[in-house]
Design brief:
Layout lengths: L2 H13 L8 H19 L1 E14 L2 E11 L4 E13 L1 H5 L8 E11 L10 H6 L6 E10 L4 E10 L5 E9 L14 E12 L1 H12 L6 H17 L7 H13 L4 E14 L1 H9 L4 H4 L4 E9 L2
Antiparallel strand pairs: 1-2, 2-3, 3-4, 4-5, 5-6, 6-7, 7-8, 8-9, 9-10
Helix pairs in contact: 6-7
């Protein structure tokens, strides 16, 4: 695990409030609701394997050796350990609250099993999530139901080697109700992502695009980098500083084999409906009209030596 991710995880664990005590039956209720939602919304069927164990503990639940069938891919994954704790988890299951007010989740050892053979265009998944290179995931959030405010303190995904993704988010919901969370009505006040590249771009971005017939050669990406440079050069200073524009351009020029840390941070003085902004820009609405004043993007690119 990268040092920055480890420090964040330790800080979260030390600052987290005491969690609700859950027994095995209550854990089953929560896990059953999660499995239903994953299947309905994401076509992910989670089941216990013959080796699975589950138990409650003062603070949450732990399950081991869960099978995850991704219907859209036709592939089976295994999660060696899932551990979660939080507050209002049972209230959420019973429809009393929109989201648990607190949640800390850790999944260790996510990898592709050999139960179903990947097709040639899925070979990148096997290379990225092989049994000898399992993925780790951590998530911590707080939900203020009265203020309808969501804070994701840490979403950390650790891949093999020095590849990782760390994200944070704060925002304001609008009219969310139990089981109804329309993301188009979620206004972002801050969002940040820090990606450590040490082969991750080639494995997780270039490989699947190439498998789908998209040209990811150096000459093609150089053309894309030139286009990105043109876009960042014309972006208003109120949205993107010259230093941030240069960082994005430098990262684009490092493709197709970036090595280093890319940090992107979006802030807004008032909650910004990102989904609607993207739709407006895609429909041809001018940038100044689509992007509200007070929304800005900061970027940093630190290449490895």
């Amino acid at each position: 695990m990268r040092r920055s991710v480890l420090v964040m995880a330790l800080a979260l664990s030390l600052s987290a409030p005491a969690a609700q005590a859950l027994d095995s039956a209550q854990c089953g209720e929560i896990e059953g609701q999660v499995m239903t939602l994953l299947d309905f919304h994401f076509d992910l069927e989670v089941t216990e394997s013959p080796a699975s164990t589950a138990r409650g503990f003062p603070g949450g639940c732990t399950s081991t050796d869960l099978d995850i069938y991704a219907g859209s891919l036709g592939l089976m994954f295994r999660a060696e350990m899932v551990r979660f704790s939080g507050a209002d988890l049972l209230g959420w299951v019973r429809g009393d609250v929109v989201l648990p007010t607190e949640l800390d989740l850790r999944i260790e050892g996510i990898f592709l099993t050999d139960q179903f053979r990947p097709s040639p265009d899925q070979a990148w998944i096997r290379d990225l999530m092989a049994p000898d290179a399992p993925v780790q995931l951590e998530l911590s959030w707080q939900w203020d139901n009265a203020q309808q405010r969501l804070t994701v303190d840490g979403l950390n995904v650790d891949f093999d080697g020095d590849n990782s993704v760390a994200a944070r988010l704060t925002g304001q919901a609008n009219g969310w109700r139990p089981y109804e969370t329309p993301w188009a009505d979620f206004g972002v006040t801050s969002a940040a992502i820090d990606i450590a590249f040490d082969g991750l771009f080639e494995q997780a971005v270039a490989a699947p695009l190439t498998a789908n017939g998209i040209d990811m050669s150096g000459s093609s990406l150089a053309f894309i980098a030139a286009g990105i440079e043109g876009l960042t050069a014309t972006a208003p200073d109120r949205f993107l500083s010259r230093a941030s524009a240069a960082a994005i351009t430098d990262f684009a020029r490092s493709l197709p084999a970036p090595r280093g840390d890319l940090a992107l941070s979006l802030t807004s003085r008032t909650p910004a409906m990102i989904e609607r902004i993207v739709e407006d820009l895609g429909s041809g609405i001018p940038f100044d009209a689509a992007v509200p004043d007070g929304l800005s993007l900061d970027a940093q690119w630190a290449p490895s030596n």
